[in-house]
């Protein structure tokens, strides 16, 4: 069998390829059964006990935030000063806020906006940064120089100054906050993917694709981007965690969404203001949720990177 026919079979997924779940043939003609990718990936993921625990925690936090309000009914719009600053009790398991709102219900509502910002920023920043960095790194030359100087210029703008000016001009809303945080979060992703792409475009398989007449877009989509997945997934999960922390930070400074809407950062701010009055239940639950969510997302990202590496090894 010629080398060309072997290559064609490898690319097409015919017998003799390393595609998941297909038969492999050795030189003697014996058939070797390949382990399906999903089974090997699941085995690798579940071997990481910390990742399994983190996944469970994230599922519980998401269910708490989005399903909890349908089970645990509270009024998070109207204030009730007759119930202000009550300690934990049978009626209010984590007490009440200075406005008389139930803290558990407040954490549920705040979790919705916090998770939405984290996931929205992680998705937008990762996709845009991946596209920007890949194009700049693969094309190179003056295109690369211009695109990366734009990134450098935007990185030189202080984020806090940018947010304060924007908050003075327009009323902060959740979609606007997602766009603002994404506008600065994609920059590091672009620099990371550009550096990886500069390395990948010199690999032999990329050169071979060009020799066989593959277009630039096909080469990027088929040979460059898949090999960036491990780095991008880890970076994307870090962006989710960073976005949650940034959202908490700007809310702590009073630049978040206006009341009665809330988030964990705003709850944290109110808790700090009342901490010395002995109202610990207004601070620590939100702080614990932020820390646990950020740690769980980071651990899950590392585990997903290991799974992606298995896929790349089988290519």
Characterization of the model:
There is one protein chain. The protein is mostly helical and 315 residues long. The chain folds into 2 domains: 1-34, no CATH class; 43-314, MetI-like fold (Orthogonal Bundle). It has 13 helices and 2 strands. The chain has a two-stranded antiparallel ribbon with strand order 1-2. Helix 9 (204-211) runs antiparallel to helix 10. The longest helix has 37 residues, at 103-139. The chain is globular. Residues 1-26 have low confidence and may be disordered.
* Through-space gap between termini: 21 Å
The main sheet orders its strands as 1-2
CATH topology-level fold name of the largest domain:
MetI-like fold
Total number of strands: 2
Strand residues, percent: under 5%
Largest sheet, if any?
2 strands, antiparallel
Secondary structural class: mainly alpha
SSE order? HEEHHHHHHHHHHHH
Count of separate DSSP helical elements: 13
Fourth CATH level, the homologous superfamily of the largest domain: MetI-like
């Amino acid at each position: 069998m010629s080398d060309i026919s072997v290559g064609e079979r490898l690319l097409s997924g015919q017998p003799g390829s390393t595609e998941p779940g297909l038969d492999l043939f050795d030189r003697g003609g014996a058939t070797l059964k390949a382990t399906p990718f999903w089974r090997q990936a699941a085995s690798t993921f579940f071997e990481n006990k910390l990742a399994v625990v983190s996944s469970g925690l994230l599922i519980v936090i998401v269910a708490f935030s989005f399903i909890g309000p349908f089970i645990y009914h509270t009024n998070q719009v109207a204030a009730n000063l007759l119930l202000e600053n009550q300690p934990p009790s049978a009626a209010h398991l984590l007490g009440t806020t200075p406005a008389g709102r139930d803290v558990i219900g407040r954490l549920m509502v705040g979790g919705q906006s916090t998770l939405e910002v984290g996931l929205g920023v992680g998705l937008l920043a990762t996709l845009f940064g991946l596209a920007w960095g890949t194009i700049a790194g693969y094309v190179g030359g003056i295109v690369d120089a211009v695109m990366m100087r734009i990134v450098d210029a935007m990185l030189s703008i202080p984020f806090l100054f940018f947010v304060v000016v924007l908050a003075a001009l327009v009323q902060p809303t959740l979609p606007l906050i997602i766009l603002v945080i994404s506008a600065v979060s994609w920059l590091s992703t672009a620099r990371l993917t550009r550096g990886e792409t500069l390395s990948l475009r010199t690999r032999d398989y990329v050169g071979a694709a060009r020799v066989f007449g593959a277009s630039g877009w096909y080469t990027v989509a088929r040979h460059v981007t898949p090999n960036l997945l491990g780095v991008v997934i880890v970076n994307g999960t870090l962006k989710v965690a960073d976005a949650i922390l940034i959202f908490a930070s700007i809310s702590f400074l009073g630049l978040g969404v206006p009341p009665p809407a809330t988030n964990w950062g705003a709850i944290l701010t109110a808790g700090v203001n009342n901490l010395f009055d002995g109202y610990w239940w207004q601070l620590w639950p939100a702080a614990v949720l932020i820390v646990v969510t950020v740690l769980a997302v980071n651990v899950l990202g590392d585990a997903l990177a290991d799974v992606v590496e298995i896929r790349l090894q089988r290519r």
